[in-house]
Design brief:
- The chain has 15 helices and 13 strands.
- By secondary structure, the chain is α/β, with parallel strands linked by helices.
- Helix 11 links the parallel strand 7 and strand 8.
Length: 465
């Protein structure tokens, strides 16, 4: 358990830090990133490309990522650079040229730029898998609760308003629409009573997933306002509190040297003592994110406070689309006591064309990687598509009665009856998402399609009773 008098860093943990005092958080955005010293290592063409893409997709990177994680001798090929800095290829060439043409003019027409940016963004499928249409629950008066999602019976997603930003933004982020300042695309709630009231009415909910953005940008005081009341016996049915976060690798100081880091760990420890399972759902995309000593210190402190750390990441072309990266990542995670959880297929949103990997190749990478790790790392499920109907796992490629097929199953589904039911799709070497697939064996539809269509009608809002 966490010792309330524990020093923020023990002597053996201080050595790898570059300054004798804890570093303060410093961030670069589209407005000031050229001021960072490393920007000078890029050509003007590369810098302009960052400016163009950052006008459309969100860009934010903290100094820890810039100074500690990116290998600037390998830029632009360094995976952490591609994970953090916009690349020209992330936009369709015509869209890139359109935005670039406006920015190149001696006097930028702000109205024309905003109009062009808005049109490009809306072509990028800002809210995939029916997030706005299907997942938003209603309160006791029938009003939509904008900052909650309830897709699966046991799990509610909560988007706290104060947590709708990240220490650094990932270029592949499927929630990029949360960060571009368009209120029509944003999900968030700041009323704790709406969260607690909904949970109190829905006894079937066992898991609360606090997400964003990144909830770890919030102060401990604010986080306690949301989570503290769940200690009440009235919420005993909420057994697990999950926190989706990238902070462990992009700002591990949150758990070590931040002013309220000790208070945060005491909050987790207190909730764990009251019988809650606290799970940090850590987004780790590449083994290079785990190479600093302060990362390992943060892991140890979280585990000492009773937090279980589970890891997940999408398979990303240009970043981690080789089995060796996953083997190294999973092996180190197990060594540190983390639990590999998911390999996802990159969602059909944002700069998807830059990151997507064909499904057959995704399965081969997963198979090659999982075959090289021990059973403790084979907890990682995948490749999994978080699509509209649910989480669909690619279990393999095989041949049945002379037809080459994908073997698929639901890990989670909008209907509990779909879960674990195998189904088959015709093999397609170009398919990279569920809606690219066609049923095998001459069938017209997949088994779930009619029921999913009924659930998708606007007159049937998701409100599980």
């Amino acid at each position: 358990m966490l010792n309330n008098n524990i020093a923020l860093l023990r002597p053996q943990d201080r050595a790898p830090l570059r300054t004798p005092t804890p570093p303060r958080y410093r961030v670069y955005t589209a407005r000031n990133w050229r001021q960072m010293p490393q920007a000078a290592s890029l050509s003007e063409e590369q810098r302009f490309a960052v400016d163009v893409v950052a006008a459309v997709l969100p860009f934010r990177v903290d100094a820890y990522v810039v100074d500690e994680l990116i290998d600037w001798d390998r830029v632009p090929d360094d995976p952490l650079f591609r994970l953090s800095f916009p690349q020209r290829e992330m936009l369709d060439p015509q869209d890139f040229d359109r935005i670039a043409g406006i920015l190149r003019k001696p006097k930028t027409n702000r109205e024309a730029l905003q109009r062009a940016v808005r049109e490009v963004r809306h072509k990028l499928n800002p809210h995939p898998a029916g997030q706005l249409e299907l997942n938003r629950p209603r309160d006791e008066n029938g009003e939509v609760i904008n900052g909650l999602q309830h897709k699966y019976r046991e799990t509610v997603l909560f988007f706290p308003k104060a947590g709708q930003v990240c220490h650094s933004y990932c270029t592949f982020c499927f929630r990029w629409a949360q960060f571009v300042g368009d209120q029509d695309l944003k999900m968030a709630v700041d009323d704790t009573s709406r969260l607690h009231g909904y949970l109190a009415r829905h006894r079937e909910v066992s898991d609360l997933l606090v997400t964003g953005g990144d909830p770890m940008v919030m102060s401990t005081r604010r986080l306690r306002e949301y989570l503290g009341p769940l200690e009440d016996p009235h919420f005993d049915h909420v057994q697990t509190i999950r926190i989706g976060s990238k902070a462990l690798s992009f700002w591990p100081q949150r758990f070590v040297t931040d002013d309220d880091a000790d208070g945060l760990l005491r909050l987790f420890e207190q909730l764990a003592r009251r019988g809650k399972h606290i799970a940090l759902m850590a987004h780790l995309n590449h083994p290079n994110e785990m190479r600093t000593r302060i990362f390992e210190t943060a892991v140890r402190r979280l585990r000492d406070a009773g937090v279980q750390i589970r890891t997940q990441a999408p398979l990303l072309a240009n970043i981690n689309d080789d089995a060796d990266a996953w083997v190294r990542m999973w092996r180190k995670q197990v060594r540190l006591g983390l639990v590999p959880y998911y390999m996802f297929v990159e969602r059909d949103t944002g700069a998807r064309h830059y990151f997507e990997v064909p499904l057959h190749r995704a399965w081969n990478i997963y198979r090659e990687a999982i075959s090289q790790v021990s059973g403790l790392a084979r907890t990682a499920r995948g490749p999994s598509m978080s699509a509209g109907p649910g989480k669909v796992e690619i279990q393999g490629v095989t041949e049945i009665n002379g037809e080459k097929v994908f073997v698929l199953r639901f890990i989670q589904g909008r209907s509990a009856d779909w879960v674990q039911r195998p189904f088959f799709a015709r093999y397609d070497e170009n398919a990279s998402w569920l809606d690219h697939l066609q049923p095998a064996f001459g069938e017209d539809r997949f088994f779930f399609e009619d029921e999913y269509a009924a659930l998708s009608r606007p007159r049937h809002p998701i409100e599980l009773n």
